[in-house]
Amino acid sequence: MNQIKCPNCGEVFTIDESNYESIVKQVRDHQFNEELKIRQKDFDERLKKELELLKTKNEKDNQKLLNEKDKLIESLKSELNNKDTETKLKVNEALSEKEKQISQLIADKQAQKDAYEAKLSTKDEQIAYYKDFKARQSTKMIGENLEQHCLYEFNRVRPLFKNAYFEKDNDASKGSKGDFIFRDYDEDNTEIVSIMFEMKNEADETATKHKNEDFLSKLDKDRKEKGCEYAVLVSLLEMDNDLYNEGIVDMSHKYEKMYVVRPQNFIPIITILRNANLNSLNYKKELIVAQNQDIDFKNFENNMNVFKEAFGKNYELASRKFLDAIDDIDRTIKALEKTKADLQSSERNLRLANDKAQDLSIKKLTKNAPSIAKKLNKE
What we know:
This protein is an alpha/beta fold. 68% of the residues lie in helices and 11% in strands.
């Protein structure tokens, strides 16, 4: 049983266990509910404050984001405007540059066209000139006049080549010869360049038309036989062949240091080859010095070898004589030793003979001859 005192009147009640538990439960539930309400209220108030703070914070953050977004939008708009302006400027510049390039190309094309037309006109004039030149010559005189033309052109500029040799090749001792040989030298008489020239031409009415390549093999042979560095064919053949009408034609892919030119390029080819070799003249001089030094060394080496060979022969002869003398001495020593032995043997025999002679007596001599002993005794 449990007793409960009333807090108002002070009266004491006695209740059983089950009722007591029920009352306690009621009181506990009431207190719990009251406390729950208080806590709920506090929680609601704190939640409300936090929500308000969160809302305020979110509003500030949102406002900040909005401000940043607005700034970004303004920046992008400004950048886009700048890009647009820059792009327009670049496009305008590109268009302007392209227009300049187009104008330049048009001008270049026109210049090339004018140059080509001028060149074509010059070529036609040259062809007409040389055809007229050939038409006025006999077949025999055509080649000779081309040679005379080249000789005249060279003599006209000879002051530029004061140490040069340019003459007809008249040496046919090896079976053939070229037309002209050109050699140029510096002040030290060192050769700068040498060229074998062949001049070829023919009349338009000639039945059999020759080609430039028909003469290259012989020209190459003449160049090598006459010790020239370069070979040049001055030709009026194949007048319609643009390859030879363009200028100087390098034929080195077929023959070493070989060129084919029209007469108007006769002097230019000499100048070009001379200037090219002039740049390498110092190297050529150094090579000549080195070659001379090599020759001197070889001569020294040859002289040394001759001396060594002669000395070797003399040494071998002296050695052989010395050995022969040694052999003779050995033979003499052996002979003397034999003579010495013979003399020693003779001396011994003489000594024995002397001893025997000293030991000789009448008694010994007549030992087996009693009649002689008797006679000697009587005497």
